[in-house]
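Box 4.2: Ligand-aware structure prediction
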Amino acid sequence: MSELLRLENVFAGYGEAVVLEGISFSMEEGDSLALLGRNGMGKTTLLSTLMGAARHHSGALHFSGQDLAVVPAHGRAHLGLGWVPQERDIFPSLTVEENLTVVSRPGHWNLQRVYEMFPRLNERRANMGNQLSGGEQQMLAMGRALMLNPKLLLLDEPLEGLAPLIVQELLAIIQQLTEESGMAVILVEQHARQILPLTRQALVLERGRAVYLGESATLRDDRELLDSWLACGTTPAAH
Amino acid sequence: MKAIDIIHAEHRALGAVLQAFRFVLDGIRDGRFEPDFQLLAAMIEYITQVPDKLHHPKEDDYLFVRMRARIPAAAGLLDQLEADHAEGARRTAALRGALVHYQGMGASGFAGFDAIAGTYLDASWKHVTKEETELLPLARQSLTPEDWAGIDAAFEANKDPWSGPTGEFRALFSRIVNMVPAPYGVGDAGVPGA
Ligand SMILES: Nc1ncnc2c1ncn2[C@@H]1O[C@H](COP(=O)(O)OP(=O)(O)O)[C@@H](O)[C@H]1O
Ligand SMILES: [Fe+2]
Ligand SMILES: [Fe+2]
Ligand SMILES: [Mg+2]
């Protein structure tokens, strides 16, 4: 396995404002990382920094053997970064199928494989983006990112606002992606307990700084750590 | 405490299907949905098979056994939960019978099916809630690391809450999600005009 992503002492934010302070971590090809922390701690900003949508102030950003800091935002998807933003950003006036095919790169993931993973998208392929339910939109946003055949998939709170049944299905699919494909995944979530079993590493942010970086399994088994940073050591059943 | 995480996760997966089943029943009762017997059968398959074949046997054979040995005061609670498990097969048969009856009778059979399904759902929720609020906190508090090592090993065999050890329930779960109407699922089974 070779190194895919490396951040060294990265500072980033918006304009002059610094949100992320001194972030360092690295991922191998096919690796998985849970990016955790309460609201407003800088999770989305970290993904935006990778995508070039937030401002990188200093520190090394290496992706796939390249200095990411010199690659313009519009070139980063082409390098192999697939972003599923928190807002999902479906094109409302394109059909499902057009949403999937408007930007794609050749590779394992094609229309047929995306439809196998998300059979509902196949049924809805002629419907417009703005006719979709929240669950369908999230599936489309994920399918669209897969069509880019990214080396690293960035999922920003993909479970937010969805009914438990859909949450469970997406968790199963994300597990399949992290286990079976060579694609690396960074998964942002508020509900740590649900995603720690799906990932190898975890990074916890608190006000823009890393307060935990290590094995997901270690964090999962440490209720005190989980409670202190995330207030989610216990998970009640889904009702 | 791996086993506890797995039990929580299985409760969440099961809870999600129980909740969707209630949503579908409510919709049929209110006239928003037509009955879709493939969906009803799939949901019943999941909410009965996963507990009866997968989840309860692990609780009975490992967690409950250790708890009985370690926590004498838990005997009453364990008796109740074990009795629920033992009832499982009978309740499953009743629910399946009710579905067959409903399918044969048509609309006039709904009330009977609804009543039996409602009883099943209530019993399942009550059972899971008891485990979440009484059993698991007690286990967490009182079992020793050696107790957990044995329990964890047994639960580990089951890699995720959706699939079962050989993946037999994964496709079923997915089929349900893709049939249940929004906002609970992403399908349109029973939605008029769909
Ligand atoms: N576009 C923006 N411009 C300025 N500040 C922002 C912007 N987006 C987010 N922030 C600020 O950056 C901090 C981190 O936000 P964010 O990365 O969205 O957190 P999270 O995703 O962990 O909830 C917050 O204080 C937020 O107010
Ligand atoms: Fe039980
Ligand atoms: Fe249980
Ligand atoms: Mg965010």
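In the box above, the bound molecule is fe (ii) ion. The domain at 2-179 of chain B is CATH 1.20.120.520 (Four Helix Bundle (Hemerythrin (Met), subunit A)).
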